[in-house]
Amino acid sequence: MKRDRTTRSFVTSEDVARLAGVSRSAVSRTFTPGASVSADVRHRVQEAAKTLGYRVNRLARSLISDQSNLVGVVGANLSLPFMARQLDELSRELLRRGMQCLLLNAAEAEQGITPLIELILEFRVRAIVVMSGSPPSSIIDECMANGVRVILVNRQADDTEADTIISDDLSGARIAAERLVRAGCRRIGVVGSGAQTPTQIRRRGAFVDRVREAGIEPAVWASGETAYETGIDAARGLLSAHDLDGVFCVTDLMALGFLDGAREMGRRIPEDLSIIGFDDIQQSAWAAYRLTTVRQSMSDLTESVLAAIERKMTGEKGDLAHEVLPVELVERATVRSAP
């Protein structure tokens, strides 16, 4: 007996039970790992489910069991190479571990991400990973009260009970500054966008402080979107006004744009101008760029997020993760050798 294909409703466990001649609880036990059910009943239920095209309603099951394998993810600028790769790795690893990703794009969240987190909570998620924006402590407290972990990635929130996992932006920016100074650069610039994200603020601030310690006052660009085109605009603007011999861009994407803009203006890289980026996106290693950059390990970042998701919540502050992941300089071909 096949179900009428003209119907638009999902096949239910009651439909399966009716066809198999068993109770609904027997259907439930059949699809519950470790539950007790006889071989005959299991076979009849599985055959009925196959005939009808039945699939377990995992969302409903999580509401009944009060356990969810859904993980909410809030992010913006998802087309940016680093963010796209981060989301790709996290979603693949979640699936591999039996969890699913519920993604909400925060690009249009002009009033902050609190409404998005409130929406995610309605799905009874296991945890919420925040890749963009900074949720207020009140919504984090609400999540914790509902047994939902909040994991902030590459952003910090003081006085909140949230897990925080960030790359060591401060060390990375200082490493970039020291490398340019060691290369003999004395007319140095730093390029960021107008986004003023916590990550960009940390990187730019640490870089500026370090070059000032070397007796150099850097030229600063902080305008436009976090995009390749901003790098080109920064190159045209800064190189027209300053005879720079070293530049640090707070993201690789802007560094690639700056590199192309500098070449457009006749600068030789690295003979006339040394450039360092940050993130080590895939495009940085392309033969056309071979960008020297600061790498943050994507695998380490993903593993730390997954560990936080899977860590049992005890309600104690010591239960929270506060990790700073190490970074390293990747030497390629856009910085002069030290004199």
From TrEMBL:
Signal peptide: none annotated. Gene3D superfamilies: 3.40.50.2300, lambda repressor-like DNA-binding domains. It comes from the Bacteria. One of its GO terms (molecular function) is DNA-binding transcription factor activity. This is LacI family DNA-binding transcriptional regulator. InterPro entries: HTH_LacI, LacI/GalR-like_sensor, Lambda_DNA-bd_dom_sf, Peripla_BP_I. The lineage of its organism: Bacteria, Pseudomonadati, Pseudomonadota, Alphaproteobacteria, Hyphomicrobiales. Keywords: DNA-binding, Repressor, Transcription, Transcription regulation. It comes from Microvirga mediterraneensis. The keyword Transcription applies. Residues 11-65 form the HTH lacI-type domain. PROSITE patterns: HTH_LACI_2 (PS50932).
